[in-house]
Amino acid sequence: MIPDSIQHYLQRNRVRYERYWHPRAVTAQELAEALHVSGWRVAKSVIILADRQPWLFVVPAAGSVDLHKVRDILGARTVRLATEDEFSHRFAECELGAEPPFGELYGIPVAVDEVLSLNERVLFRAGSHEEALEIRFQDFATLEWPLVASFIQEHRPQAVTEPGRRAAETREAEVHAPA
Predict the structure, then answer these.
(1) Which residues pair with 50 in a beta bridge?
(2) Run of H or E including 57
(3) Which of 25, 29, 77, 108 has its Cα between 20 and 30 A from that of 129?
(4) 40-44 contacts: CB < 8 A, separation 24 or more?
(5) How far apart (Å, rounded) are the C-alpha atoms in residues 14 and 16?
(6) How far is CA 64 from the centre of its chain?
(7) pLDDT score of 161
(8) pLDDT score of 73
(9) In 10 A of CB 165, how many CB atoms?
(10) What is the dihedral of CA 161, 167, 169, 173, to 10 degrees?
(11) What's the pTM value of the predicted model, to 2 decimals?
(12) Which structural domains are found in the chain, ordered by start?
């Protein structure tokens, strides 16, 4: 069930939305599959700490955040994914992993990948793994005033990594700016 605080937030701001019940979907890509839509139309929320400041990055279910791009866009020295312990208290009424993209409601700045802005309507989780919301992208942008930029990883085959290293070994948990 979508928490009342989210419904009231949308109603108070006169944002029309549609609710969709679906089989339990833990990942955003599972949500896309359950609703029979492209993973490029479903948005997921990724909580990132940039110089210890939380940010809510909204990306397509089919995409992944590029922390190097995030660091450059924000001009931050350090950027990393937040742990569940670092953000779950802000989204107390939401199921863990179903955080909505409404940073204004939770006091967190929002950034959205420009790929999502190409969609007239966008689907996302809003506190529940069994129900999704759909709103017009323009309504989302007016509601949140997000930073819109390109910060998802380009899709490359895993073979394109440093010679002799597996893709998992080249991933960084934290990205630092050069000293």
Answers:
(1) 53, 79
(2) strand 53-60
(3) 108
(4) 40/115, 40/119, 41/119, 41/121, 41/122, 41/123, 42/122, 42/123, 42/124, 42/132, 43/101, 43/112, 43/116, 43/122, 43/123, 43/124, 44/124, 44/125
(5) 6
(6) 9
(7) 32
(8) 96
(9) 9
(10) 110
(11) 0.84
(12) 4-153 (3.90.960.10)
Q: Environment class of residue 144 by beta-carbon count within 10 Å: exposed (0-12), middle (13-18) or buried (19+)?
A: buried
Closest CA to 63 of 37, 45, 81: 45
pLDDT along the chain (179 residues), means of 10: 94 96 92 92 95 96 95 96 94 93 96 95 93 96 96 60 35 52
**15/12 Cα distance (integer angstroms):** 8
Q: Is-contact 69 151, C-beta < 8 A?
A: yes
147: its two tokens: 């930073």
Which amino acid is present at 29? Q
